[in-house]
Amino acid sequence: MKMKAAVILFAALLILSACKKQIETNMSETVPDFEYTTQDDKPFGLKDLNGEWWIAYFSYTHCTTVCPRTTANMVDVQKDLKEEGLSPRIVSFGIDPANDTPEVLRQYAEDYGADLHSFTFLTGYDFETVRDLSINTFKAVLETGALDQRTHSYYFYLINPDGEIVKKYNGLSGEDNDVLVDDVKTVLGN
């Protein structure tokens, strides 16, 4: 009788685990509480994201190397997800807050065709604050460089409803961006 109960319990656990949607993860860092300023000059913080899956990356408007590609790729990810009926929040942490005012960020978003209903560009802090966030939380380099350029991450990050970064993706890779879209579809049950 005990063996039969064990087999039934094991089968039930297998069925339940098959129903749980999971993705392969490669990070486990908790995003600290924050409240910054959006492209619409409004406050926006971690409390606005609690309980939701969201995507983050780092950019700045006068970048001449990585950002034009990563921002265009993120807008493509947003469009691909929207076609699937999904609109997770996307947050761009601006890494040149002295120059990237809300007005500049809003124009940048419009230039790239970002849907600001779910895409938020942040500023309203100093460089050391965003540098600390990049290095200590997202585990990514962020330094000032020559000719007013910045050395920074080109990764996209998926954050779970508890504010934990669970996976990073190469934002310059079409293949990784497809994986990001598939992972979001998985975790949001689509």
What does this entry look like structurally?
- Residues 9-20 have low confidence and may be disordered.
- The chain has a single domain, classed as 3-Layer(aba) Sandwich (Glutaredoxin).
- The chain is α+β, with helices and mostly antiparallel strands and 190 residues long.
- It has helices at 2-19, 67-83, 102-112, 127-137, 174-187; strands at residues 29-30, 35-38, 43-45, 54-59, 89-94, 119-123, 142-144, 150-152, 155-159, 164-170.
Helix amount: 25-40%
- Categorize the overall geometry: globular
Largest sheet: 8 strands, mixed
Q: How many strand segments?
A: 10
CATH class: Alpha Beta
CATH topology: Glutaredoxin
Strand-pairing-aware structural class: alpha+beta
Which architecture would the CATH scheme give at its second level?
3-Layer(aba) Sandwich
Number of domains: 1
Low-confidence stretches: 9-20
Q: How much strand?
A: 15-25%
Output the helix-strand order.
HEEEEHEHEHEEEEH
Rounded mean pLDDT is 88
**CATH homologous superfamily name?**
Glutaredoxin
Helical stretch tally: 5
Strand order of the largest sheet: 1-10-9-4-5-6-2-3
Alpha-carbon distance between the two ends:
40 Å
The gist of it:
By secondary structure, this protein is of the alpha+beta class. The protein is 37% helix and 23% strand.
